[in-house]
Amino acid sequence: MLFKKVVRFITFILMIVGAVFNILAIAGNSWENINVNTKIQDRSYHIGLWKVCENSISSKCFNREKTDALKATQAFMILGFLGYLTAFIFCALLHINKNFTINLLGVVLNTSALCLLIGLSVYTNQVSIREYKYGWSYIIGWISFLLTLVAGLLCYTEHFEYHSIK
């Protein structure tokens, strides 16, 4: 019984941190960074899913050109977040109905992880420019995927029985 409670607690904490990271990745304007050095002045640009921002004294931002691959990345990242919302609903149902199975929560979390994986992979292979450096938004997007995957897999460990070795 204690093992079940610990697994559920760890899963819930991973879900919270993963959801926060997913929100920050979606909203962050630092998926890629580039520094442009000219004789007149140096400029750095931060590229997000939605905007490109010039990081100078006055931080100017403009909308990013939307290619099909970028739209796919945006859609799958949002679907991943909607998976988190669904997972939180299932967590509430787990506390209300003790007979509700945690395996369904694992399916929802693994589906959410799959959406994040697809979105991040499309960005990596189709959208990103190889000469640019990846930024913090991109990195925490991948961390969000890993946390979701681990939380989803933890849901399936609840039914294992552990025996001590004598």
Per CATH, which architecture?
Up-down Bundle
- The gyration radius over C-alpha positions equals 20 Å
Q: How would a textbook summarize the main sheet?
A: 5 strands, antiparallel
How many β strands by DSSP?
A: 5
Task: Please state the overall shape, judged from the principal axes of the Cα atoms.
Answer: elongated
Order of helix and strand elements from N to C terminus: HEEEEHHEH
Provide the number of structural domains.
1
CATH topology descriptor: Butyryl-CoA Dehydrogenase, subunit A, domain 3
Structure annotation, total helices: 4
Distance between the termini: 22 Å
| Content-based structural category | alpha+beta
In terms of per-residue confidence, which ranges show pLDDT below 50 for 5 or more consecutive residues? none
Largest sheet strand order: 4-3-2-1-5
CATH class (first level) name? Mainly Alpha
Strand content: 5-15%
The level of helicity is 55-70%
Write down the overall mean pLDDT.
86
